[in-house]
């Protein structure tokens, strides 16, 4: 036993050994090359089968969750999972951060192909339907029943968005709506005590909110988002307010070329190019917090970040009206991936129950500004105290019953958001004729929407 | 009989030697070939295959749809804009980097004080991460608080809205790309200048050539091999300029800075996921780069004078 055992590094390398090593390396490289392409094609119609047993009865079930990325939202999301892990011993949630909604969805697509998907994932309004169409999401009804999750406690419209033919695929979590934010200090300095109720009113107010230095606008009255910051989401509300819209829910009718939608786009373009009281930015939240604009329409989900960072009094209000009031829902919910085994899926549902509930859900929405997705949460004692302290959040919750689900063209057509968003950029920044652009965009949407139309008809 | 046996023996010895040589050859070439196949040839062939398919990333299956992807890409009104942007970007950055790079190299080839420090300074942006450079330049270009605005304020000049103005966004990207890659050209040019034998300059001087004539007749021909090398690599690299565009403009505003490589990303990995169309763009890019390289090799190399 006195002989010291040789380590790998001390073993002399013979020629044969070296050749064997090289051969193995080359073989591995060749195998890697064949990996994706040579894999047998999975049937398109059947969901990926989930194994049934993953752990011994009674052991802790580990669940991987791909959640929020960045700022207050990521921090709070992680805290909700930590609180859940501390509160019980059956399930342990590991939160992994992948990026914004688009980056998460892209990585999830690749992870599914590589059979490396998480058990549950945060999916935005624009993305969940695409994964559901691809049969990548599990029907949740059995897990909901087993977890005794009560759908009646949820805000009906939010809950129903994730249901297709009676089957739940997506449960609301970080749901938001656009909200009108304004810098109360700037408004007061300009002699205004409250936000405008209509766009006509705002057109009169705007010139007094601008600050110029020579020809350079130092502070604009309003910051419009661009394609990168979901301009097609906010503009949908403007289009509705003017009496227009993008499409119906079945994608049988497109409304972009309707005179009302054209007028709405022209109004937005004029605010930047003619009346010059607004500017376009990739990050309205940053501009608003930095005092570069007096107001902006942003997600309620930005409220936590805005209140934390703004050095001025922040006011919130309902979106301004034109012909109508118009405000859509947005944000994200949770899907359980088809690849998750049953035990993990059930454990994921336990976490969903917590993260949307009076404890986890209230903590998340109070810290971020996202909507409380359960009526019972909004009615809880903790919320009453929160509203008293943060009236800005109450405006958002009060606006919620007046909102409605988004037009199918943006949320169901692959790339619909960016197709419309880029069109809007052409009108507002490129100064192109609104009707010509919308005709062009409608043609693209019709083409891209064709395969989705059939699925919508089939799935309901 | 004896003779045939001998010849058979020598034949088998020969065959064994041949086989050994082949084995040695394969051992040397094999690993490289395997890597080339895995990371170059296989993706290339798969890209060709994907361009004819309606590929579903979720299920990893593809349905052959003939030339539909090609038709979609070439009838898309954005494609011509993107091709034009790619051309403008490539021509601009290659011409500017070559010209400016040569001028800076000539300066840094002189016996100046702190020359080495300045050389390192000029080269340093080349080693910086593109994403970090992009973030810093976003602040420099900021239309309301940016550094350029602050610098021009005392002169009462109003700078453009750079990244937010379709007419200026491409110029902004070109400025940053040139700034980041100039050092690379300078270093290569300096090396090229130092490789030109001093005797040639002396001989020219003896023949009565002035500075301009020496530059035209000695420096330029002497630099032609490195200029040729730089032209090829700069063109190929410019086609792959992705990081700056991804972070600074996202191809916008209104497609003003969208180039082929960024379009490929948008289609393959962005929200309008269409792997088939992205593969078509990949093929277009490949064919363009192949043609450009062949043309450069055929036309430019003829004019290159290699020393010795």
At the fourth level of CATH, the homologous superfamily of the largest domain in chain A is Periplasmic binding protein-like II
Q: Please give the radius of gyration of chain A in angstroms.
A: 26 Å
Main beta sheet of chain B: 2 strands, antiparallel
- Derived structural class of chain A: alpha/beta
The total domain count of chain B is: 2
Explain what this protein looks like in three dimensions.
The complex is a heterodimer of chains A (460) and B (308). Chain A has helices at residues 15-38, 71-87, 101-113, 128-133, 141-147, 156-160, 184-189, 199-209, 231-241, 259-273, 284-289, 303-309, 342-355, 360-368, 375-379, 381-389, 391-399, 408-411, 416-428, 434-459, and strands at residues 61-67, 91-97, 120-124, 163-164, 167-168, 171-176, 178-183, 211-213, 216-225, 278-281, 293-299, 314-317, 330-336. By secondary structure, chain A is α/β, with parallel strands linked by helices. Chain A folds into two domains: 61-176 and 330-389, D-Maltodextrin-Binding Protein, domain 2; 178-327 and 405-459, D-Maltodextrin-Binding Protein, domain 2 (3-Layer(aba) Sandwich), CATH 3.40.190.10. In chain A, strand 8 (211-213) and strand 9 (216-225) form a beta hairpin. Chain A starts with 14 loop residues before the first helix and ends with a helix. Chain B is mainly α and 308 residues long. Chain B folds into two domains: 2-50; 73-303, MetI-like (MetI-like fold, Orthogonal Bundle), CATH 1.10.3720.10. In chain B, 76% of the residues lie in helices and 3% in strands. In chain B, a hairpin with a 4-residue loop joins strand 1 and strand 2. In chain B, helix 4 (115-127) crosses helix 7 (166-195) and helix 9 (211-239) packs antiparallel against helix 12. Chain B is flat.
Short account of what is shown:
Chain A is α/β, with parallel strands linked by helices and 460 residues long. Chain A has helices spanning 15-38, 71-87, 101-113, 128-133, 141-147, 156-160, 184-189, 199-209, 231-241, 259-273, 284-289, 303-309, 342-355, 360-368, 375-379, 381-389, 391-399, 408-411, 416-428, 434-459; strands at residues 61-67, 91-97, 120-124, 163-164, 167-168, 171-176, 178-183, 211-213, 216-225, 278-281, 293-299, 314-317, 330-336. Chain A is globular and about 70 Å long.
């Amino acid at each position: 036993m006195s002989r010291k055992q040789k380590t790998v590094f001390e073993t002399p390398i013979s020629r044969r050994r070296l050749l064997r090593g090289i051969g193995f390396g080359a073989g591995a490289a060749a195998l890697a090359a064949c990996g994706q392409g040579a894999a047998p094609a999975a049937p398109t119609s059947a969901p990926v089968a989930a194994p049934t047993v993953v752990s011994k009865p009674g052991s802790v079930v580990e669940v991987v969750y791909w959640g929020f990325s960045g700022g207050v939202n990521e921090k709070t999301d992680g805290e909700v999972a930590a609180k859940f892990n501390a509160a019980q011993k059956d399930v342990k949630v590991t939160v992994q951060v992948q990026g914004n909604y688009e980056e998460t969805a892209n990585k999830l697509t690749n992870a599914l192909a590589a059979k490396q998907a998480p058990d549950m994932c945060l999916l935005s309004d624009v993305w969940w339907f695409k994964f559901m169409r691809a049969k990548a999401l599990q029907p949740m009804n059995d897990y909901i029943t087993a977890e005794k999750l009560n759908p009646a406690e949820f805000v009906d419209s939010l809950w129903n968005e994730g249901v297709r033919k009676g089957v739940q695929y997506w449960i609301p979590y970080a749901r938001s709506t656009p909200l009108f934010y304004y810098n109360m200090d700037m408004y007061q300095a300009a002699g205004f005590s409250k936000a405008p109720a209509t766009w006509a009113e705002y057109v009169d107010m705007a010139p007094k909110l601008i600050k110029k230095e020579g020809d350079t606008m130092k502070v604009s009255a309003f910051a419009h988002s661009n394609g990168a910051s979901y301009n097609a989401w906010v503009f949908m509300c403007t289009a509705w307010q003017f009496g227009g819209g993008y499409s119906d829910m079945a994608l049988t009718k497109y409304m972009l070329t309707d005179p009302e939608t054209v007028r709405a786009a022209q109004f937005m373009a004029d605010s930047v190019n003619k009346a010059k009281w607004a500017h376009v930015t990739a990050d309205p939240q940053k501009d608003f917090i930095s005092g570069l604009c007096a107001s902006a329409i942003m997600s309620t989900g930005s409220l936590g970040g805005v209140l934390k960072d703004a050095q001025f009094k922040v006011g919130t209000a309902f979106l301004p009206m034109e012909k109508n009031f118009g405000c859509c829902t947005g944000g994200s919910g949770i899907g359980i991936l088809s690849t998750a085994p049953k035990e993990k899926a059930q454990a994921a549902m336990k976490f969903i129950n917590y993260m949307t509930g009076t404890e986890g859900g209230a903590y998340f929405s109070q810290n971020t500004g996202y909507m409380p997705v359960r009526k019972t949460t909004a009615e809880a004692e903790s919320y009453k105290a929160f509203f008293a302290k943060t009236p800005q959040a109450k405006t958002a919750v009060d606006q919620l019953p007046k909102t409605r689900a988004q037009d199918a063209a943006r949320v169901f057509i692959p790339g619909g958001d960016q197709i419309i968003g880029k069109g809007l950029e052409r009108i507002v920044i490129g100064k192109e004729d609104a009707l010509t652009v919308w005709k062009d965009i409608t043609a693209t949407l019709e083409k891209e929407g064709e395969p989705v139309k059939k699925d919508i008809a089939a799935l309901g | 009989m004896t003779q045939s046996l001998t010849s058979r023996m020598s034949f088998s010895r020969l065959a064994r030697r041949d086989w050994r040589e082949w084995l040695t050859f394969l051992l040397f070439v094999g690993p490289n070939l395997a890597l080339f196949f895995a990371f170059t040839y296989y993706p290339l062939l798969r890209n060709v295959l994907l361009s004819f398919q309606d590929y579903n990333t979720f299920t990893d299956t593809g349905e052959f749809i003939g030339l539909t992807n090609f038709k979609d890409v070439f009838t898309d009104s954005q494609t011509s804009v993107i091709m034009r942007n790619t051309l403008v970007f490539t021509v601009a950055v290659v011409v500017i980097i070559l010209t400016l790079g040569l001028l800076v190299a000539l300066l840094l080839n002189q016996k100046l004080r702190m020359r080495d420090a300045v050389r390192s300074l000029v080269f340093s942006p080349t080693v910086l991460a593109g994403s970090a450079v992009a973030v810093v330049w976003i602040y420099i270009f900021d239309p309301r608080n940016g550094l350029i605005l602050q610098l021009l304020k005392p002169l009462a000049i109003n700078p453009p809205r750079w990244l937010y103005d379709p007419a200026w966004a491409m110029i902004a990207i070109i400025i940053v790309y040139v700034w980041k890659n100039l050092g690379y050209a300078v270093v290569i040019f300096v090396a090229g200048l130092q490789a030109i034998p001093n005797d040639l300059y002396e001989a020219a001087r003896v023949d009565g050539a002035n500075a301009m004539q020496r530059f035209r007749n000695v420096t330029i021909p002497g630099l032609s091999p490195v200029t040729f090398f730089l032209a090829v690599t700069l063109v190929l690299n410019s086609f792959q300029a992705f990081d700056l565009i991804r972070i600074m403009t996202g191809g916008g505003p209104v497609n003003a800075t969208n180039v082929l490589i960024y379009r490929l990303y948008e289609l393959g990995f962005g929200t309008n996921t269409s792997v088939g169309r992205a593969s078509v763009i990949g093929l277009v890019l490949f064919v363009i780069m192949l043609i450009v390289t062949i043309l450069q090799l055929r036309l430019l190399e003829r004019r290159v004078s290699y020393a010795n």
